[in-house]
Amino acid sequence: MKKAFTLIELLIFMGILAALLGILSQILASALAVQVESQTASSVHSDGRYLLSRLTYDVRRASNITSPASAGLTSPTLTLTISGSPYTYALSGTDLQLTTPSSTDNLNSFATQVSAFSVSRLGNSNGEPTITVSFTVTDRSVSENFQTTISTRTN
């Protein structure tokens, strides 16, 4: 006599297998969602830190801050004079752009959006023009605000 599975045993096995596959697929989907959220937050933080570093670098080497022109003014653009040439930071849609005499470049990555870019001229600190820059970087559902105060260097 041949040994074989009964129909009941086969149905029980298929039910248990289906339940296990369902549980495993939920765990995998949750793990992937956490990974995507983590990468998104990392992208926002990385872009924000890069933008702050680039702004600080350019302001520190600037000989003059043209816009905002005087203490107490706030502007949606930052115009600096570096080596006699104008460097302008401004939003173009959801990209922060740097315009120099030779090029216009988007500074944030393609996955992130920059909004609420604002520059306030505070005045002079120890004879140096000082500004506060603030902006928001967003990617999907993650958003982070950035702000820094920078002054030019005295040569």
Number of strands: 9
CA-atom Rg in angstroms: 27 Å
Mean pLDDT across all amino acids = 92
Share in helix? 25-40%
Count of helix runs: 1
Given as residue ranges, the uncertain stretches (5+ residues, pLDDT < 50) are none
For the largest beta-sheet, the strand count, sense and barrel status come to: 5 strands, antiparallel
Order of helices and strands: HEEEEEEEEE
> Strand arrangement, largest sheet?
1-3-4-5-6
Query: Distance N terminus to C terminus?
Result: 100 Å
What structural category arises from helix and sheet content? Answer: alpha+beta
Estimate nothing, just give the exact number of structural domains. Answer: 1
Morphology: rod-shaped
Strand content: 35-45%
Pfam families: N_methyl
InterPro entries: N_methyl_site
Protein described:
Pfam families: N_methyl. InterPro entries: N_methyl_site. The structure is a single chain. With 155 residues, the chain is α+β, with helices and mostly antiparallel strands. The protein has one domain. 35% of the residues lie in helices and 41% in strands. It is built from one helix and nine strands; from the N terminus they run αβββββββββ. Strands 1-3-4-5-6 form a five-stranded antiparallel beta sheet, covered by helices on one side. It has a four-stranded antiparallel beta sheet with strand order 2-7-8-9. Strand 8 and strand 9 (142-151) form a beta hairpin. It starts with 6 loop residues before the first helix and ends with a strand.
